[in-house]
Model the fold of this input.
Amino acid sequence: MSHRWLLYCFLTLVFLLPGIPAGASAGEVRALPEREIVAAFEYPGRVVDDDTSVSLDLIIKNNGRRDETVYLDIVKKPENWEASIEHYSDVVTAVFVASGEKKTLTLSTDLQGRKRDETLPPGEYHFEVSAATADKELTTTAVADLVVRAKEAEGEEQEEEEKPVRITTSYPALRGPTDSEFEFSIDVHNETDEDDMFSLRADKPKGWEVAFKPSYENKYIGSFQIKSNLSQSIEVEVTPAPKAEAGDYSIKVYANSSKGEDEIELTVTLTGTHEIACKTLNGILSLTARKGKEANISMYVINEGSSEQREITFNSFKPENWEVTFEPETLDALAPGAMEQVEIQIKPAPEALVGDYSVAVSARGEDASDEIELRVTVKASTTWGWIGIAVIVAVVVGLGITFKRLGRR
Done:
């Protein structure tokens, strides 16, 4: 009888083992997106004198995992101006950028036919450079605004040089998001033949913070000494109020000594805050799926910043041979505080094993991005489950009948 019992157990295990789900863990490591390029001017806002030839540094960055050849085109420039993209005086129309690297080029601009002693017309000038991959799948635009100011007449310069205290700066205007910290560099000049102590103060918008420190040092100061006929470089750190609206803001900086005072006006242009968030209903980040079958989950994209987000695209990082699609595929624009629902379809590979998998999905706008990680549990097909149960029941019944007959003998 013991032999019959062992035979019964062995046959039962043979039929039961294939039906036991084999857990498969496939937690994926986060990585760079498949493809992403960025084109931006290092200083998108500049103020120059009217007798200056202008060049702007253009940065092309490849944030994706694939090497890219990026084609460049100047799509907007002031009328009657010349402009070209150069690298060490060579004109460039395309640049190769390896994965994770960046290249710096130069946009050279000038008024057509301007002679060396001629000045530029004062005013504001706008430039745009389009960057696109070879297959045109990725495009982006770099924007720069140039302000040309009239250089002061010789008589005014002479009068200014005679002042005992002078403040100068090369970049009086900066722009950026509301949550940024802006750092100006000013030079305080002691135009007298005596050493003197100087103090600094600032008139600023309500809720803003302004601090002073010597260049290349981390200590903050309120006063300092400058030797006769020398100057001191000072960094002016400007922190906007947390809820400051987009727009232009003026900060006046004053330098005082025993011999006199001077002031300079600095301008901060706030473009608002840039922040988007990806969320799911009730914060649920898991779902179940069957291999080779689509499973759906809704994602909500929210603009939590104070400025509009445009050209929002969606990407995924998934196990091999899986399919992830989005509906809609892109969002043209998302106003501050607005929310859009995006449907995500996840289809496991037909050969996927039973178990838990990680799928990361992200939303990327012009100036902000966010991502969430979903846990997808792949389950065995219910049809095969019922077939397995039926086979097991049939085997057990068959073995019972066999043992019963053998027992009678």
The longest helix spans residues 382-408. The chain has four domains: 2-21+383-408, 35-151, 152-271, 274-379.
